[in-house]
Amino acid sequence: MIYLAFIVILLISLVLIYFSVRNNRVYKFQVWYCGCAFNVIDDFLKSFRNDENEFNKRFEEYREMNKIVDRIVNKSYNEMLYSFKPLKLECWFSEEEIEFINRGRR
Fold first, then answer.
1. What is the C-alpha to C-alpha distance for residues 33 and 93, in angstroms, rounded to an integer?
2. Dihedral, CA of residue 50, residue 54, residue 59 and residue 61, to nearest 10
3. For residue 94, what pLDDT is reported?
4. pTM, two decimal places
5. pLDDT for the residue 56
6. Are the beta carbons of 102 and 38 closer than 8 angstroms?
7. Cβ neighbours for 33, distance < 8 A, ≥ 6 positions apart
8. 8 Å CB contact between 23 and 81
9. CA–CA distance, 99 with 106 (Å, rounded to integer)
10. pLDDT, averaged in runs of 10, over the chain (106 residues)
11. Contact yes or no for 34/73 (Cβ under 8 A)
12. Angle, CA 86 vertex, CA 80 and CA 92 arms, to 5°
């Protein structure tokens, strides 16, 4: 009986350790890819800092970029935390989103 209690406590401890490590990795992964996505938008807006007319001409491109950023940012934290999928871009994002994220890498 005592061995069973020991095994149960050991399993619960291992699960808690796994989720603690996974939580930390999911957090870092999300901060990284959201930062990359926002870098792309930031670079796009900086290029039009003094030229409002050019920005108005390319406003449609800006709206498309915002739609992609919304899709990227709205990935569920809990879905990533409780999934067994690896934390790799290819597992969570489409090719278009991966290309967008890679443009923001610094």
1. 11
2. -110
3. 92
4. 0.81
5. 82
6. no
7. 72, 89, 93, 101
8. yes
9. 14
10. 91 96 96 92 85 83 90 89 93 92 87
11. yes
12. 60
- For 6, counting Cβ atoms within 10 Å of its Cβ (0-12 exposed, 13-18 middle, 19+ buried), the class is exposed
Contact present, 30 and 23 (Cβ < 8 Å): no
Residue 59 is which amino acid?
A: F
CA distances, 72 to each of 18, 41, 68, 84, 102 (Å): 25, 13, 6, 19, 12
pLDDT at 49: 79
**Taking the CA of residue 5 as centre, how many other CA atoms within 13 Å lie in the half-sphere pointing to its CB?**
2
Q: How high is the pLDDT of residue 28?
A: 96
Take residue 54 and report the two structure tokens written for it.
Answer: 């050019």
